[in-house]
Amino acid sequence: MLPDFDATVRAIADTVALREQRPVGTAGQASAFVLASFAGLPGYLRPPLRAATLIFDAWPVIGQRTYFHDLPPEERRRTVEAWERSFLGPARMLMTFYVSLSLFGLWPDDARHG
Amino acid sequence: MSIAIPWDSFDLIVFDMDGTLYDQPPLRRRMAALLAREAIRQRSLSVMRTLAAFRRQREAMANAVTNDFAVAQYRLPGHSPDAVRATVIDWMEQRPLAMLREYRTPGAGTLFTRLARNHAIAIFSDYAAQAKLAALGLSARYCVTAEDVGRLKPDPAGLLWLMEQAKTTPQRTLMIGDRDERDGEAARRAGVRALIRGRDFRHFDDPIFRHAS
């Protein structure tokens, strides 16, 4: 098994949807929105973001011997929140980017339009 | 299968704005990227969370009647209504304007020009629409929003107001929108025929609009 970009994005969107108190859209709609938004980013931004996402996915292998996207929901949430509070700017920025897009994907109209 | 529309039998053609006169998904993706950049810059998701709460509030208000709609829509727990209003105007009304023209629905300009010869064109929108209409390079004789009538779609108040202004009847009015549960339902409640984007047509170059003049 290797780090998996799409599975990681889906797992982050799932985590954000579970954490939100009143999501209107579903996690599936949010992850579809995040993946579509990622595809629409300028070409120069996608490779570094993809690489950072794969590093994020592989990070739990050090302590838990499994990828982020294979973690149970509670562990995923702990990992996301640890990265949101990280002292490393790029780690915080990566999580803010994904959480922000996931939240947008959970908005009423966006849930419908994808 | 194409629907035959008897264009000559209508006086008033009412358009919804968001999702009907421009393509929403690509614009939303660009706005989401801008919001993500703002969140990273500010190290805070507060703008995103405020807008998300406002959208949920508006969706909930669509199913309820509120007497002070214009104020109540900005009343969110833990937020100053003025601050919510400023954030909404900035991110949902002003910033998208510069990008709107790029996403105008194909055929909209030609259709508006043709329809304006023999029909009154109106906009019926849940959100502010005048500036968006100008940004799209379109013009309409009448424009009504949820704030003007204090009701969100599918309440037909805006549609009824437009028919009164145009001195016409439901039989001589056509509503064109993109959400059957909002635009279509408002039209049904007002006794007006509706065309729904995505169900009845994809864009304004479709054959259904060929004889509109």
From TrEMBL, chain A:
Q: Under what name is this protein listed?
A: Uncharacterized protein
From TrEMBL, chain B:
What's the catalysed reaction?
2-phosphoglycolate + H2O = glycolate + phosphate
Q: Which domain of life is it from?
A: Bacteria
Read off the SUPFAM superfamilies from this record: HAD-like
As recorded in UniProt, coiled-coil segments are: none
GO cellular component terms, A-Z: cytosol
Q: Which Gene3D superfamilies match?
A: HAD superfamily/HAD-like, Putative phosphatase, domain 2
**Hydrolase listed as a keyword:** yes
Which EC class does it fall in? hydrolase
Q: Molecular function terms in GO for this entry?
A: phosphoglycolate phosphatase activity
Q: Known EC number(s)?
A: 3.1.3.18
Annotated GO biological process: DNA repair
This protein's pathway reads:
Organic acid metabolism; glycolate biosynthesis; glycolate from 2-phosphoglycolate: step 1/1
Keywords recorded for this protein, A-Z: Hydrolase
Q: Which InterPro entries match?
A: HAD-like_hydrolase_sf, HAD-like_sf, HAD-SF_hydro_IA, HAD_sf, PGP-like_dom2
Q: Of which family is this protein a member?
A: Belongs to the HAD-like hydrolase superfamily. CbbY/CbbZ/Gph/YieH family.
Q: What is this protein called?
A: phosphoglycolate phosphatase
Instruction: Tell me the classification of the organism that encodes this protein.
Output: Bacteria, Pseudomonadati, Pseudomonadota, Alphaproteobacteria, Sphingomonadales
